[in-house]
Amino acid sequence: MSGNQRWQQAGRLEVFEHHDPAEQEGAGQGPDFERLQGAVGEILSVVDDPGRPDLAETPDRVARMLLELTRQQPFELTCFDNSAGYDQMIVEDGIAFYSLCEHHLVPFFGTARVAYVPREKIVGLSKLARTVDHFARGLQTQERITNAVADLLMERLSPYGVGVQLHAEHLCMSMRGVRKPGARTLTTALRGVFKDGPTREEFLH
Ligand code: ZN
Predict the structure, then answer these.
(1) Residue 104 annotated among the catalytic residues of the structure
(2) How far is the CA of 40 from the centre of ligand 1 (A)?
(3) Domain tally for the chain?
(4) pLDDT bracket for residue 27 (50, 70, 90)
(5) Is residue 15 part of a domain?
(6) Which end of the chain is more exposed for a tag (fewer CB within 10 A), N or C?
């Protein structure tokens, strides 16, 4: 089997299907870990001298890191009754996130702004950041994370609407290819009352 085939095989690891936190504790062992280790070793044998002593621990470290970055953590989106009858926009801004581009396996990262107008349920502010973190795990696109955050909040909170904006730098654009360091990509998902009218204006400006 060529290195490339093995890497492709490793790339198809069931990284999205493993959600068991107990299993994640042992990310330094098991068949998935070993397959990843082997795949990273194959990459090193092509891009560098795999016998170089400084690289001896690299397959181990990279395998551990990839398992950590690609396994979504289960989390509870705790909701409360909107007993105060709050009916204006709730915004959490400047949520830092880090993800891996599914096309190049290099990071993209930036900040997220998440807002909603509650109906009967509200959610702890930290949970908005957790929601972004949750979907940033794995091999992703910025568009998919943006939509997934908006859709989950619509589903769980049944609010009047949700707005999500992600502002990110993609290293696959900064380090290579078109080489535009500092170029940022902006994605927006608008649901319910955020789609138009004053709520849209308030959120976007
Ligand atoms: Zn990319």
Answers:
(1) yes
(2) 19
(3) 2
(4) low
(5) no
(6) C
